[in-house]
Amino acid sequence: MSNVEREPAELRCGGVAAADPEPELLRPRTVPLGGPRALMVGRTLPNRDRRMVGAWCFADFYGPADIAGQAGMQVPPHPHTGLQTVSWLLEGEVLHRDSLGNAQLIRPGELNLMTAGNGISHSEESPSDHSPILHGAQLWVALPAERRAIDPHFEHHGDLPEVPTPEGHVTVIMGELLGASSPARTYTPLIGAEITVNPGAELRVPVRRDFEHAVLALSDGLVVNGHEVATGEMLYAGLGCAEIAVGPGRALLLGGVPFEEQIVMWWNFVGRSHDEVAEARATWERSRVDEDDAARFGIVRGYDGPPLAAPELPNVALRARGRTRRD
């Protein structure tokens, strides 16, 4: 998914982690996704004070939105560098097209994972015969410096491991949890899982102490480690937890080894310097208007509309800073 803000702020992420003894409730800000009749999404990462959870650097939550008789999601072709996009649906369908030639419909419980590496472009749209409700999450994972320029690739996983428990069940989207491993390719130690807890129950999930963790609420009434978390909010549980207690409802558990690199995240690019991001933007603008200059980001075929134009860079140099506001 694109960050389609016309004046995107400089997002400063990464940096050396310290122990975080107190949980933090991260409230989303509302962002329009698309044109005049845009789908509204809630963005919890990056947040004002906390930019990342492990390598997870971006989290949008949308819906449930009634899109009956409407176009629904319509995100034109746009570029990415230095990250992985993670698409996860609770209801509805989204059609992904990319410059590698992939066209994949994603449905609830399936994972679309696109690794941008040195550069890729893609579009996302609700198909013409879409369901009336659209509900889901879109997340990004920052690639480590030594892998940020790898060749782009795409994965679709329609049969992810599920772990049933007396209290509910867990779907392992990325990484390993409760003895189950996702087939999705990762480049730093991390976990992404959907947790569903039965009414009146609480599920205690053992987690790695060397990971920091956060829980994104997908339904109302959720309680995480004793804290109420409303739909679309995220509770950052910190570093060093032995378990995460969730219930009742649905949630996304995100975690990973704290990302110690400083990064620059601006628009749809993750880089390490102003010049790196500026070069990616200029290359996209050239390829957007001239298909003969599209070697880096390629061309998305099949989307009915022009690619997104990149916003103007800010009038000050982008700087790589820490993973939290205080770093």
UniProtKB/TrEMBL annotation:
Q: Where are the annotated coiled coils located?
A: none
Homology family: Belongs to the pirin family.
Domain (Pirin N-terminal) ranges: 44-141
PANTHER family found in the cross-reference section: PIRIN, PIRIN-RELATED
A Pfam family assignment: Pirin
Name the UniProt record assigns to this protein: Pirin family protein
Task: Look up and give the organism this protein is from.
Answer: Saccharopolyspora griseoalba
Q: Signal sequence: where?
A: none
